[in-house]
Every structure is written in structure tokens, then in C-alpha cells.
Design brief:
Number of helices: 5
Order of helices and strands: HHHHH
Shape: elongated
Largest sheet: none
Helix content: 40-55%
Strand content: under 5%
Distance between the termini: 71 Å
């Protein structure tokens, strides 16, 4: 073997080609998919969901404003990416509350409604 310019043998110590270095690890943020909402919702409808668990964000077309934003003449803003996980948790809690309300009689008192909201809120913490 002929000596290389660096002073060692050409081709590595074993005389063959050296293996390429392993690829760098993929960051976890690229491996885990971002959370998604249970159903599409704008920020205004999501905020209203906290007071009315039966609220649904209804859009006639994906590129148009929802009905609530059209009625209030406000911009229809999507949920910011950093808050999607919290928004999904809010949607899940609202679904639990709405399901429990559906079990109650349609004429359930406001006091029963408040007790139910308080009970579910304590369990979620």
C-alpha cells in the first residue's frame, strides 16, 4: 500500500474502504405528528365551547368564515398551532359534558347544568 498524504496507509487501517458515518438521529419533533382537533373549529367557536358544550363550528366551505364569525362580523381565526393540544382537550371535555347533558331530561334545571360542569371540571384537573 502506498502511504497517503496524511502519513497513514491509503484506504484505512484494514486496507478497504471505510464505512460512511451513521445518519444523524431524527429529532423527536419530526417523528411525532402534531396533534389535531377532533373536529375543525375556529378560535371564536372554541372559546364559546367553554360556555356552551354543544357549540359546533359550521363552515359552508373550508375557505369561508364560519356562521358564528359571519353573524358577529368578526374575522374567523384558526386555532394557533401551539394551542392545538389544549384545544383538543377542551373539545374532549365538552363532548363528555354534552353527552351527560343529553342523558338528563331536556328541561333540566340550570342548577343541574352548573353542578355537572363543576363535577367534570374537577375530574379534568
Amino acid at each position: 500500500m502506498a502511504p497517503s498524504r496524511r502519513g497513514g496507509l491509503a484506504g484505512g487501517a484494514r486496507g478497504g474502504k471505510t464505512a460512511p458515518p451513521p445518519p444523524p438521529p431524527v429529532p423527536e419533533r419530526l417523528v411525532v405528528p402534531p396533534p389535531a382537533l377532533l373536529r375543525p373549529s375556529c378560535l371564536r367557536c372554541l372559546k364559546h365551547l367553554g360556555t356552551d358544550p354543544s357549540c359546533v363550528c359550521v363552515r359552508p366551505a373550508p375557505e369561508r368564515k364560519c356562521e358564528r364569525c359571519v353573524r358577529s362580523k368578526k374575522p374567523c381565526v384558526p386555532v394557533p398551532r401551539p394551542f392545538i393540544a389544549r384545544a383538543r382537550a377542551l373539545q374532549e371535555r365538552a363532548d363528555v359534558i354534552a353527552a351527560r347533558i343529553a342523558v338528563l331530561a331536556p328541561g333540566a334545571s340550570a342548577a343541574a347544568w352548573d353542578r355537572l360542569k363543576e363535577k367534570v371540571g374537577r375530574k379534568a384537573k
